[in-house]
Structures are given as C-alpha cells and as structure tokens.
Amino acid sequence: MHGVKRTRQTADDIAAKKRREQSKIEEYLALTRDVLSRKKASDWSEDAFNLTTKLLQVNPEFYTVWNYRRNILLRGLFPQRTPEDVNNLLSEDLAMTMTALKAHPKVYWIWNHRRWCLENIPNGPGSQEDGDVAGWKKKCWDRELFVVEKMLDADPRNFHAWNYRRYVLAGMPVPRPETSELAYTKRKIEANFSNFSAWHQRSKVLTSLWSSDKLDKAKSREVEFELIRNAMYTDPDDQSVWMYHRWLIGSGDDQMLLEREISVIQELLDEQPDSKWCMESIVHYKLILIRNHSRSVDVGKLTGDCSTLLSQLQRLDPSRRRRYEEIAKNIDVGPR
Amino acid sequence: MSSKLLIPLHVSYIQKLGESKDDLAYHLTSHLRLNAIYWGLTALCVMGHQEALDREEMIEFVMSCWDDEAGGFGAHPEHDAHLLSTLSAIQILIMQDALDRVDVPRVVSFILSLQQPSGVFAGDSFGEFDTRFLYCAVSALSLLGRLDELDKEKTVGYIERCRNFDGGFGNVVGAESHSGQAFVCVAALAILDRLDVVDTDTLCWWLSERQLPNGGLNGRPEKLEDVCYSFWVLSALSILNKVEWIDANKLSSFILSAQDLETGGIADRPGDMVDVFHTIFGVAGLSILGYPGLVDLDPVYCMPAAVIEAKGLRKGWKALERRPADS
C-alpha cells in the first residue's frame, strides 16, 4: 500500500469495520464466482460483458476479467455488430477506462486495456475510395493525446502516462510533427524544472530530430544549453538539470564546448561554494578532458583540481563518500 | 521507532496474512495472491523462519493455480496464467523443494511463446509487454534449467535498447529509467552472462543518487523515498559490486523506521500502512546490507542464496559482510 497512513484502531473499531464489510465481501465474491464460471463456460454474451463491467469497476486490477472482457468482445460481440457499432462499443470502453484511470492512475492493466481498444478501432466511417477510411481511428487517437495530457497535468511524473504518450505519438494515423513535442516538453519543464520525465522525453525527441537531420544539431544544442543554464541557476541542487546537462555534453569530443561549460559551472560554484552538483559535474567534465584531450590540456593541473574537488565532495556528501574515493583512486592510478 | 528488526513480530504478521478472509482488501488483492505468498515465504526464509507457513498447504495452493489451458500459473485458482505468477509459482516450489510437481516442458513452452519479435516478453496472451516480464521469463527459464532454449541475442538486444543516457533502463524502449527496471534488466543480464551491456559507472552513479538525506531510496530523480526501492536499487548495486556507494547505516535505519511495532510488517515509509510487498523488500534490503542474524539473499533471483548456490546458478554479486549480532 503506497502512501496510506497508518491509523490505530481499537478491537471494537476493527470488529465494526468487519461487520460493515461482510455484506460487501459476500456481494463481491458472488459476482466473482458468477463471472469466472461464465468464463469457464465460454459465455460470450452481452450479459456476461455487463457483469465484467460491474466487477472491474470494483476491482480494476482483476487482469483475468480484463482478458475475459476482451474475449467476449472478440468472440461474442464484434462478430454480430456493424463496424459502426464496434466503434461505439470501443468508445464506451475507452470512456469506462477513463473513469477508472482517474481513480487509479497507476494501474498497468487499465492502461493496457486502453491500448487494446485503440488498436481495435475499425476502419470507417468512409471507405478507401472516399478517403475517410481512418476517420474513427484519427478521432480516437487524437482524443488519446488530449486524455494523456490531462493525466500528465494531474501528475507530471506518472510514467504510465508518459509511456502512453510516446505510444500514442508513435501510432497516430496522422502523425504530429516531432517538433511539437519540443514545445510540449518545454512547457512541462518550465512549469517545474524538477520534472525529469519531461527532460528525459526531450532528450529522446532531440536525439530523433538530430539523427534524421530535421534539426541542426549544433544550433539546437546551444538553445538547450541556454535552457539548462536558467534551470541551473534557479535550483542548483536539482539533479534532473545536471543529468540533462551530462546528456547534452555527451561523449565530450568537443574540447572547446567542454571548457566553456566547465567555466560556466565554475562561475556558479563561485557563487554557491557548497554546490555538490557543480563540483561533481566539474570533476566529471575535467576527467573527460583528461581522457579525450590529454595532448592539448594541462593534465597535471586538471588532475589536481579533480582531487581537491573529490576530497571536498567526500566531506560534503558523506553518503556517497566511497564513490568519490574510488574515482580519486582511479585518477591516481592514471587513465585506464 | 526501533533500531532492531522485530523478527518474531514480522513472522507472526506474515502468518496472519492468510487469516484475513473477513477483510475486503484480502479479496480485492486475489490477483496478487501467488506473488504475495512468494513475498511472504521469501521474507520468512531471509528471517530464518521458513517453517512458519505450512509447506503442504502452500504447495497444494500453488498447484491449484495451474491454468491447464495456457500451461502456466495464474495468481489464484481460476485466474489466467501470467508470467508474474508463473515465476512466483516456480520460486515457491523451488524454495519448498517441490519442483517435481510442475510440468516443466509445458511451462517452458508457455514462457517461450510470450517472446515478441522485438525480444521483449508479453505478460500473457493479451500482450502487455515490459522488461519486468522479460526478467520473469529469463529468471524462470534459468531456475528450470532451460535457459538454452531462449534466443539470448534477441533478449539482450531488447534490454540494450531500453538503456538510457543516465545508465538506467526503462520498462520499454524509450521509457524513463526507473530503479525497478535497474533490478530486472541488470539481473536478467547477469543471468545471461551479459553484464558487458551495462555502463556500470554511469548506472551506479545514477543508483547511488537515489539515496535521499533521510537515508531512504527513491525510484527516479526528484521523487519520494520508498522502502521497496531498497531492494531494487541494492540488488543492482550488489550485482555490480557497488553497494558501498550508498550509506548502508542510513538506509538500514530508514527501513527499520518503517516497521509497524504493534502489528509487525514494514510499510513504504514511516507511519504508513504495512503490507507484505514492502515487508519482503525491506527485509531483502537489510540482508544485502549485512544486517545481523539474517540469511543471505541472492540479489539476482531474490531467493535465499543457499537455494541458488545448490542449483549451481550463483553469479558474481557481492553484498556487505554480515555484521555480528551485537553491533
């Protein structure tokens, strides 16, 4: 049970609660027995379908009943319906799971059922000839994007919702330009710099845009450095920002870029002399300089800087002391 | 708050779990029953009290969850077979030395049938897929001694594509890194002898940054701590031999502070309701941290280390040395 506060109950309280629950338990177990025995008997009727609705409303994690519900649709209901009715049935299921998700935004089975519904939306209402063959699909998938934005407004870190967002974006009958996802993640990041889920998504979108040459990498990376600099100065203790910065630097082939970013961070460290993340990042980037550019940097000085910072980090962040010690030890041994 | 693990109290808490049939929550969690038995039994084994639950009764219950149509185990009698519950069933039967009850060839073909062309596994016939299920498949096949039937390249390939720039892994390709996925992906790679896929320095940096000032671990950057991550993070760190990169004392204190001193059991964080899921992962974390008096836990399989060693499946993980009882 995540985040449910412990309450102390007297023996009388517990007994009273159990009495109150007794009839609910009986009702729930009777419904469960009814549904599972119909399942066993391959009952693909509308009655059975309605019973699964009732049961899933009480317990949306009952995966066996979700499976049964899909089998009823596939084997019992779809074959007898027109495509329009199938579309309506699935739209109703999407509405039902929306209600369930509002109450249980982190239940895998509900998100899973939504995916299944989306994938089974039939062609129509038009035909291949009149060009409206994907009308229902388009409407549904567009609505999903709206739905998932609502879910991410409620909890901007819900990873189910982010996964679903990526799934919808990748599967839309009419894809949206990838650049629109940059605007979306920027909005999420600006609302809260700590939203690492949004930074993560941004890193994926940029990687894809850069590799397909839809965006000039050098130019767009400068825009990102600008964005991240604001975030660094706003909250230098926020690790999301520093992780993203590390991603932007990448393998560190560009010496000038590394040196420029080290001096930017050094400036911030001068202002915030206890900033763990400034020190940690400077060490990381200076070690990259030593590793990748040993011929054109002052290795002795960089090594000395790193050792000093690592000793400071051991005092400042004792929980991770052993990690800093290990890095320091490896510098002494020299590059591996 | 207690500075000690209240073993007798937790044992009795686990014993009583099966007696709450007059509690609605008990029935609403039937879809997790087999998993819950695995969690309870493993916690008991780690605390040295395997005998606290009746062996015969447990084996009979596991066998009653067999789904003969699919050839796997459901979470409860008459529930559909699923990889999550199939792994739990196999783990329980191995801990109870009763694997001979299983129709191994059928289970193996059920598991293998769930692998997708991408290399990931679906949880069941309806196809939700996730690296969690990939781990379940790899772990189960290994425990059954049938890993040679798996397409290893394809499986490792999927895990590799789930790796992110922070060194962590997501539950599907493109997903954000999560501590739970650090466990499933690193442990699966350990079983497949492919830890070369892990960027150890980067991942262990990311994992060590999961520790918060109160000692607890979180699952992702800038999120709250939770006892269950004690195991997810520590298992990956111990497989990669980096448990020392976090503060063991602070984490032990955090786990102990989440115990319920009256009813037994461990919660997600201090003051919350306890459950068997957080109880096992709290106890498992303490075992890896060398807490006195506990039995060694294998972090790859999340089962008693002796059981895994006896099967010849031990990998090169390293936990902290067990401290003597008076420290």
From TrEMBL, chain A:
Per its record, the protein catalyses: geranylgeranyl diphosphate + L-cysteinyl-[protein] = S-geranylgeranyl-L-cysteinyl-[protein] + diphosphate
Give the record's keywords alphabetically.
Prenyltransferase, Repeat, Transferase
Q: Name one GO biological process term.
A: prenylation
GO cellular component, as recorded: Rab-protein geranylgeranyltransferase complex
- Gene3D superfamilies in UniProt: Protein prenylyltransferase
Protein purpose: Catalyzes the transfer of a geranyl-geranyl moiety from geranyl-geranyl pyrophosphate to cysteines occuring in specific C-terminal amino acid sequences.
Please state which protein family the record places this protein in. Belongs to the protein prenyltransferase subunit alpha family.
Give the matching InterPro entries: Prenyl_trans_a
SUPFAM superfamilies given for it? Protein prenylyltransferase
User: Which GO MF terms does the UniProt record name?
Assistant: Rab geranylgeranyltransferase activity
This protein is called Geranylgeranyl transferase type-2 subunit alpha
Reported EC number(s) for this entry are 2.5.1.60
From TrEMBL, chain B:
- What's the family? Belongs to the protein prenyltransferase subunit beta family.
Record note on quaternary structure: Heterodimer of an alpha and a beta subunit.
For this protein, what reaction is catalysed?
geranylgeranyl diphosphate + L-cysteinyl-[protein] = S-geranylgeranyl-L-cysteinyl-[protein] + diphosphate
- What's an example Gene Ontology biological process for this entry? protein localization to membrane
Q: Which cofactor does it need?
A: Zn(2+)
Q: Which GO terms describe its cellular component?
A: Rab-protein geranylgeranyltransferase complex
User: What keywords appear on the UniProt entry?
Assistant: Metal-binding, Prenyltransferase, Repeat, Transferase, Zinc
Q: Where is the Prenyltransferase alpha-alpha toroid domain?
A: 8-303
- Lineage, top-rank taxon, reads Eukaryota
Q: How is the cofactor bound?
A: Binds 1 zinc ion per subunit.
What are the protein's GO molecular function terms?
metal ion binding; Rab geranylgeranyltransferase activity
Supply the EC number(s). 2.5.1.60
Source organism of this protein record: Crucibulum laeve
Q: What is this protein called?
A: Geranylgeranyl transferase type-2 subunit beta
Question: What is this protein's function per UniProt?
Answer: Catalyzes the transfer of a geranylgeranyl moiety from geranylgeranyl diphosphate to both cysteines of proteins with the C-terminal sequence -XXCC, -XCXC and -CCXX.
Name the top EC class. transferase
Q: Which InterPro entries match?
A: PGGT1B-like (IPR045089), Prenyltrans (IPR001330), Ptb1 (IPR026873), Terpenoid_cyclase/PrenylTrfase (IPR008930)
